[in-house]
Amino acid sequence: MPRHAVERLGTVTHLSILDETGAVDKALEPDIPETDLLEMHRAMLYGRCFDERMLKLQRQGRIGTFAPIKGQEAAQIGAAAHLRPSDWLVPSFREIAAQIWRGAKPRDIWLFAAGYNEGVAIPEDARDLPLCVPVATQLLHAAGVAYATKYRGEDDIVMTFHGDGATSEGDFHEALNFSGVLDLPVVFVCQNNQWAISLPLAKQTRSKTIAQKAVAYGIPGLRVDGNDILAVWVAAKEAVDRARNEQIPTLLECVTYRMEVHTTADDPTRYRTEDDVAPWRKRDPISRFETYLKAKGLIDDKTLKGMRETFRDALKHDWQETQERIEELDAGDPMGIFDALYAQDYPHITEQKAYFRERLKRERAHG
Description:
The chain has 11 helices and 8 strands. The protein is an alpha/beta fold. The protein has a single domain (13-330), classed as Rossmann fold (3-Layer(aba) Sandwich), CATH 3.40.50.970. The strands form 2 sheets. Strands 1-7-8-4-3-2 form a 6-stranded parallel beta sheet, with helices on both faces. It is globular. It holds the Pfam family E1_dh. Keywords: Oxidoreductase, Pyruvate, Thiamine pyrophosphate. Its cofactor is thiamine diphosphate. It is an enzyme of class 1 (oxidoreductase). Heterodimer of an alpha and a beta chain.
């Protein structure tokens, strides 16, 4: 028998609404209420100010390493803006803006970065998982949560974030396959920032897009300009509505750029040049969005200056609050490290407790 086509594979579309200068394609401009536009801008700008403050704290040795979000604010806020409080957010390790949008407090983020697990305690009524450092493992968690919501007959959806590097992990493919086969209400948001630490996208995959990987699993794949908040908003709305109303997962690729270090333990000058970064600085998602908002008469330079000053003052106060909490935790009983491990004691835990208790006594006796 001669060869014949089994199935016509789907196409992957690329969406862009705001160009690099902030000019809008009127034919594609979404009808977003002005209050929502301003709220998204506020979240993006606050996320940038928070990121800058966090970087200073790390350089001063006050907190540990973390992954900056500079340049990726639109990809996070434009997507998370469609989540209801009852929906689930499953982040990786570079979603600070999305986490704050969902209600995370600066104090808790800084507490965790300073080495205190109390910073990632999940409130009883929250549906936000803690950040996940192991690459792509959170995608399986998201698929599992989506399976549970469907099993319970709820109409809540799950949104999970990952980077381009995660697409080379088996967990990514397992999660997409599981979600596609079982028709799970989950949106996979890939922040394609061009780098998996020092590995460029060209050495990560031969695929022309990451979105096209969705085709193999029989689910929709969309590609958007990840620095264009309007394009992300439109694509994410489509994906969220599909998940909620049709129980169909989506892979949403947001093409953006990691403008800062991978983490504060990284030195990007060893593998990329300023010439690599410069074109993307011109595509900054915040300045692009601000140009659009100014053209609509919603903000001006005076307002923006005032917002930045307000955010920076508030963050100073938040850091003082964080320091007070750290002092409280340091004054607590070190035996508390065992409290969150098991619901009950087991022989090996009892043995470890006894050893640790005696060690503390000896150390205190010797000053």
